[in-house]
Amino acid sequence: MTEPLQPLRSAPLRIAAAPISWGVCEVPGWGHVLDSGTVLSAMAGLGLTATEFGPPGYLPGDPVELGNQLAAHGIAPVGGFLALALHREPDLALAAARVTAELFAATGAEVLILAAATGANGYNSRMPLTDDEWRTLIETAAAIGDIAAEHGLRVTLHPHVGTHIEDEAEVRRFLADSELDLCLDTGHLAIGGTDPVALARQYPERIGHIHLKDVRLEIANEVRCGRMEYSDAVRDGLYVPLGDGDVDIAALVHAVQSAGYDGWYVLEQDTALLPGDSADGPTRDTARSLRHLVEIGAQSTPTRI
Questions:
Q1: Kind of pairing, strands 264-267 and 207-212?
Q2: Are strands 214-215 and 239-240 parallel, antiparallel or unpaired?
Q3: What is the pLDDT of residues 188-227, one digit of tens each?
Q4: DSSP state at residue 276
Q5: How far apart are alpha carbons 278 and 257 in whole angstroms?
Q6: Please, which of 54, 131, 156, 286 could form a disulfide with 19 given CB 3.0 to 4.6 Å?
């Protein structure tokens, strides 16, 4: 069993986990899904005290039951990821966002992490948007931001492989056209061709939430060029523990800390499990990432703690 990281509670960074690091994903057929008790126990065993919720329906939909389950493991709610087709049928997207915001707010969560889904299952392909569809996407995202604010939540937009905000041009277009902040996901940005450190340095005031991943750029390039599907790349070792890949995680943390960022750093290493796989492998990988991040944090001087 992996030993808990004792200094974590006094670490200068706000560190959280996410169920996707244990293979829990919203994509049908993604892989073996561990039960929530196993995943939360693994998080708690590492000394982690906060988590995102994972895909809708993974944790209880009743706020009291959800709060009790998290509290039983000593874990606080951060918020969660919601992939919606923002460019079409906005009424459906707004209804789903309202239900999610109500649940998040009732549990004391902070942030709703929005992704501009294509409407298809998975993240392996997408079609370009028309200008009208892009305008609808921007307007729908803004309306979801208003819904979240009514419930005391923040919304951040998550650039993500296989969505309509993936590559650098789309990220910059979104920043120009929308007032919403970004969820800076180091892995998805790198796969889409954006340098996450350079982006953080250029737009420090637009970084509202952070997902930390490390990637092997050799495989990321295969995804970006269309020679490998995203799901296959994940299974082929696209993601590695922090410090083992090609993203300069230390530079990213130092850049946002020096700019005054005091939000969450979510350890989120996309993983797909095979039938019969246990939590042991993902827990070991998360422990390595956690130790690397705590070491980085010890070298940072945050503006506020």
A1: parallel
A2: antiparallel
A3: 999 999 999 999 999 999 999 999 999 999 999 999 999 9
A4: T
A5: 35
A6: 54
